[in-house]
Design brief:
Blueprint: H1 6-14, E1 19-30, E2 54-56, E3 62-66, H2 73-88, E4 95-97, H3 119-135, H4 137-140, E5 144-151, H5 153-159, H6 163-185, E6 190-192, E7 204-206, E8 210-212, H7 229-232, H8 241-253, E9 285-288, H9 297-304, E10 308-315, H10 326-340, H11 349-365, E11 370-372, E12 381-383, H12 384-401, H13 409-420, H14 423-434, H15 437-444, H16 454-477, H17 482-491
Antiparallel strand pairs: 1-3, 1-4, 1-5, 2-3, 5-10, 6-8, 7-8, 9-10, 11-12
Helix pairs in contact: 6-10, 6-11, 10-13, 12-13
Length: 494
């Protein structure tokens, strides 16, 4: 179990204690019958590649909304509510599907966004085409939430270490406790049968329309969902930035036997490595550098180090109106502060295997399984519920030490209840009682009753025009044909 460091806590309390949080939320778009939508990205959102707040993840029905970073959790949550409502009002009768596994699936409705005429947009289209040719549309059509987190300069200075080392230590600790986080936040144990059509997967039927793993927390995180067998063989431990960058470099430059026959000459993928580019690396936590459209993520990290962490693999919570609650945000913030103020030894090869196994167990059977605790201990395995309760108790004590306990009373009440009765188990219980998945999620995806803040409404409308202007600017600044641009892009990491 990860344990906090009293010296780090003392230094943290001398700082301004400021954290910055931002949210990226994906939703598939569905009609009112629970079928995936065949409609395109709304024109009044501008050019999705350059809209800072409303964009696309993989396909035309795969919407993504993004908040800037905020100091206060409630501000990030309220901004996300405003964005969610603003998008709902432009969906031409559709819904934002409030569940991480997709609606009733039809391959013909999964249209990739247009490549447009700028080199940057053509590259984005080619990357998506590569994902389709590598993994298929179904794996790319799950949805979730990314939680972006960073500390103020005051906090980083108080902790003494290089900021990159601080964020790497946090990443290691987050991996160690991610199986617990997944058990508490995972809520996608069942999927519609259309998601599995044509796939050779061992899974049980739930009624006539759905399939499930009876004790799963998250099919999305499991080997049945958003998963790359090729990447899973080489666990990313975050022991050093150099090793992380080396992994990215090798994955990009070394041809992968499974992907090498997908044509490069006919532009069917960006390259034939294990990953086409940095964003294809499927980590549960991703170190990020300074945001720049002109500098590749690899070079941002290599030149300037880590600026913030992106926590991935968070399921949409269908028991909330927009897929996440303020308690969920409070929990993730506290967990990451805890990860920073705890000792974080390097992850050995043996511990890597234990973490991988615990994540697998949590995703596929986390409602009631055992977690591996310590291979050298007599009690090498322990009930997941006992481990979860123990962690929540430690986290509650930690919250008192850093002065955050009063602001987290509702959160702890909610999360101890989830330990006893996980969200995924609650969902299966609700489905067993009266309904199928499509009917259940349709009710949970109803348009929200929310009034958008006036200044945010103006901001979202203005962003549409700005995205159009940025696209035109990109086209004018292109100084080479796409084939040359692509060759240059491929040579950047060698």
């Amino acid at each position: 179990m990860v344990e906090s460091n009293q010296q780090k806590i003392s230094e943290f309390l001398k700082s301004d204690q400021v954290t910055y949080k931002g949210l990226e939320k994906e939703n598939l778009r569905s009609d009112f019958e629970g079928k995936i939508s065949n409609k395109s990205f709304p024109k009044n959102f501008g050019v999705h590649n350059f809209n800072r707040y409303i964009t696309l993840d993989y396909s035309e029905p795969h919407l993504e909304i993004v908040t800037p970073p905020f100091k206060e959790n409630i501000e990030a949550y309220n901004f996300l509510c405003d964005l969610h409502k603003y998008v709902e009002e432009s969906l031409d009768g559709d819904l934002l599907w409030n569940y991480s596994m997709p609606p009733k699936f039809k391959r013909k409705y999964i249209k990739l966004p247009s490549h447009r005429e700028a080199n940057a947009t053509k590259l984005a289209h080619l990357y998506r085409l590569g994902l389709r040719n590598r993994y298929g549309d179904k794996m790319q059509s799950t949805a979730g939430i990314h939680f972006n987190f960073s500390f103020s300069d005051s906090v980083l200075k108080s902790l003494g270490d290089n900021k990159t080392d601080i964020y790497l230590g946090m990443s290691r600790n987050f991996l160690r406790i991610f199986p617990i986080v997944l058990r508490l936040m995972g809520c996608s144990p069942v999927t519609h049968k259309s998601f599995l059509k044509g796939r050779n997967i061992n899974i049980e039927n739930l009624g006539t329309e759905d399939c499930y793993l009876p004790k799963s927390t998250s099919l999305r995180v499991s080997r049945l969902g958003y998963y790359s067998e090729e990447q899973d063989e080489n666990f990313t431990s975050f022991n050093s930035l150099e090793n992380y960058l080396m992994t990215i470099k090798e994955y990009i430059n070394t041809p992968n036997d499974k992907f090498k026959n997908i044509s490069l000459d006919l532009k069917q993928q960006v390259n034939n490595g294990t990953i086409q580019m940095e964003s294809e690396l499927y980590n549960h936590v991703r170190p990020k550098g300074i945001i720049s459209n002109k500098i590749r993520a690899y070079n941002q990290l290599r030149n300037k180090g880590i600026e913030y962490l992106e926590i991935r693999s968070i399921d949409l919570n269908p028991y909330t109106s927009i897929g996440i609650s303020i308690e969920d945000i409070d929990f993730l913030e506290l967990v990451l502060i805890f990860c920073a103020l705890a000792d974080s030894p390097l992850i050995s090869d043996v511990e890597s295997e234990c973490i991988k196994e615990n994540i697998k167990r949590s995703s596929e059977a986390g409602q009631n399984c055992n977690f591996i605790r310590d291979l050298e201990n007599k009690n090498a395995e322990e009930s997941a519920k006992i481990v979860t309760d123990e962690f929540l108790t430690i986290l509650q004590e930690f919250a008192e030490k850093v002065g955050l306990s009063k602001r987290r009373e509702n959160m702890f009440r909610e999360y101890f209840q989830r330990s006893a009765f996980p969200l995924s188990e609650k969902l299966l219980n609700d489905l067993n009682q009266s309904t199928n998945l499509l009917s259940f999620v349709l009710k949970k995806s109803a348009h929200i009753n929310h009034k958008i803040k006036k200044e945010n409404l103006l901001l979202f409308k203005k962003e549409c025009d700005l995205s159009e202007k940025q696209y035109i600017r990109e086209k004018k600044e292109d100084n080479m044909i796409f084939e040359e641009y692509l060759r240059h892009f491929r040579r950047e990491i060698k």
